[in-house]
Specification:
It contains four helices and no strands. The protein has 113 residues and is an all-alpha fold. The protein has one domain.
Amino acid sequence: MVIKVSPVSLEFERFKSEQLNEAEVILHLTDRQGNELSNIIYDHKEAFASYKEPLGSVVGHEFDIIINIERPYPPLLRRPAYPENPKSIEALELHIEELLDLGVKGKVGHNGE
């Protein structure tokens, strides 16, 4: 008797070994629970971070961050501005560039464009 293994199951097994082996939660589940969780994660793998996509890659979801600048001002906005440490500015710029390189979009200017 010859059992053929479909490419999908090979891909699933590769996914489990590469992506889920380090997931400690799997160790605390029964075999059935672990398999069910693995199937769910595999079916929705594009939503999860991986080595190639460290932030996941769910497309089409946006959110707006509304900052309250109306009176009465929040306590942090009441403080006077002070110059930032150049090393901190450089680190922030590196993080912003990394996020943009990873496909996190939405960098806007002061006028919202």
